[in-house]
């Protein structure tokens, strides 16, 4: 390419860099820097985050553990977790709905798990599902460090599409009053339909779905709005530490099989 042609494209490149600078920063922090640190430390980011929690957080205090994770993500390494803004929405909804039994698909580091668990009513139960065994091992330690035993929070290691059909028989979950979808947005629709097919959603159940705007779950949202079985509301937020990148939590209220 000649210098003249390169110079002709320079204004376009500069414009794109300025317009999408937040996305470039996110890419650098979540892919490039994270991969480098993984290689240098031999640990995954959630393992490094847990090591930080062990030395800085108060055992048995889920609120302090959550704040410690937020601080680590903002000042050390971006954790790609739910964050405080979405966390407030989640806790408010769990407290309002007071589910006797809640289900989370996508435990990750355990951040949203702690949010749900601390907002459950007395005697409430949470089942959380994580497909990656190494990530699940970190989340398990975080959950127990926060003071929740297996009677309150049970972590299941496995693929959501394989676990959901076994929830009733193997894990004695006959109904999910509240569901949080926080794993892979492209799997949201499939897993919602699995929950419907196995009659795990009672009338009035609340289904929450994170990251429906970024990276997005358009097929899931289209289905929820068009099938006639859900009342839908979208809580607009931004990504933690990247408020200019717009995201949202979808809140669905199940009306029944119709």
From TrEMBL:
InterPro entries: SAM-dependent_MTases_sf, SAM_O-MeTrfase. Belongs to the class I-like SAM-binding methyltransferase superfamily. Cation-dependent O-methyltransferase family. This is catechol O-methyltransferase. The gene is TOMT. Gene3D superfamilies: Vaccinia Virus protein VP39. Pfam families: Methyltransf_3. It is an enzyme of class 2 (transferase). Signal peptide: none annotated. Catalyzes the O-methylation, and thereby the inactivation, of catecholamine neurotransmitters and catechol hormones. Required for auditory function. Component of the cochlear hair cell's mechanotransduction (MET) machinery. Involved in the assembly of the asymmetric tip-link MET complex. Required for transportation of TMC1 and TMC2 proteins into the mechanically sensitive stereocilia of the hair cells. The function in MET is independent of the enzymatic activity.
